[in-house]
TrEMBL record:
InterPro entries: NAD(P)-bd_dom_sf, Sc_DH/Rdtase_CS, SDR_fam. It comes from Amniculicola lignicola CBS 123094. This is 3-hydroxyacyl-CoA dehydrogenase type-2. The keyword NADP applies. GO terms for molecular function: oxidoreductase activity. Belongs to the short-chain dehydrogenases/reductases (SDR) family.
């Protein structure tokens, strides 16, 4: 599918990997509907990108908030005529914590809920609510493709580190749901793909200490550096454009396998 003149719904689109994705798809002629909690960066980005972009202040852990953003996107699509071509579920958070703390206290359930509600429930809810819109798009090209859903897991889906039980659970679930999602949606001509990045430069990783970053860089094979958001965004674009990518999890990690501890 060509991104040109199609609308992409991008959660987490005000920062990091999802923002780079929005810029990449926008530069390929797409319309981008950005859903994020951060209204300040959201409006800065739409004023920079111009009329082929729209921002909706959204909390993906709230079903009502997603519903409002989808309704807003539906009206926008009606105005522009640029049918929805895909969803990129990029909103995500990390909240490290050992499952059993040093004082023999278990990880608070609130921490687990926080991570699962955004990374897993929020991803599924966004997809679920975008589907009625995507399934009624006019099929495109010889395959009759309607669109693609792109999710973001993490290396933590496969080799999560100490203190990452909740995060790894959320990302492992996203990786696991990719194939059944693709199977459910094949009759509509909608694909589902998950990208699992290792360490990439973003606001999320800016918060890591120098020691943690250095430890991760030591575990890298080649290249020995954090990925750039633009490198992630290029894989999203390839995923949109290459219809044979479906039902799979693509590791984007320079052969890095995360060690148990740093
Ligand atoms: N950067 C990395 O190294 C890395 C590695 C593996 C996976 N990931 C995943 O990539 C995704 C993007 O992360 P990033 O590194 O670009 O981080 P980031 O912090 O730069 O961007 C995340 C965005 O999500 C938004 N967000 C957070 N909670 C939200 C909510 N409830 N509703 C709506 N928006 C919300 C934030 O406001 C922010 O704009 C996440 O799912 C993250 O887990 C990142």
């Amino acid at each position: 599918m060509k991104p040109e003149n199609r609308t992409f719904i991008i959660s987490g689109g005000a920062s990091g990997l999802a923002l780079a994705t929005a810029r990449e798809l926008h530069s390929a002629g797409a319309y981008v509907s950005l859903l994020d909690l951060n209204a300040e960066s959201g409006s800065q980005i739409t004023s920079e990108l111009g009329p082929r972009s729209k921002f909706f202040e959204t909390d993906v852990s709230s079903t009502g908030s997603i519903a409002a953003a989808i309704a807003g996107t539906v009206s926008w699509v009606r105005e522009t005529g640029a049918e929805v071509g895909g969803v990129v579920a990029g909103a995500g958070v990390g909240l490290p914590g050992l499952i059993l703390g040093k004082g023999n206290e278990p990880l608070p359930i609130e921490s687990i809920d926080f991570v699962l509600n955004i990374n897993l429930r929020g991803t599924l809810d966004l997809i679920r609510q975008s589907l009625p819109l995507m399934a009624t798009v006019k099929p495109d090209g010889p395959d009759g493709e309607r669109g693609v859903i792109i999710m973001i897991a993490s290396s933590a889906a496969f080799d999560g580190q100490m203190g990452q039980v909740a995060y790894a659970a959320s990302k492992g679930a996203v990786a696991s749901l990719t194939l059944p999602l693709a199977r459910d949606l094949s009759k509509y001509g909608i694909r589902a793909v998950t990208i699992a990045p290792a360490l990439f430069e973003s606001n999320m990783t800016k918060m890591m200490s120098g020691k943690v970053k250095l430890g991760l860089e030591k575990a890298m094979e080649f290249p020995k550096r954090a990925g750039q958001p633009e490198e992630f965004a290029k894989l999203v674009r390839t995923t949109v454009e290459n219809s044979m990518l479906n039902g799979t999890v693509l590791r984007l990690d320079g052969a890095m396998r995360m060690p148990a501890r740093l």
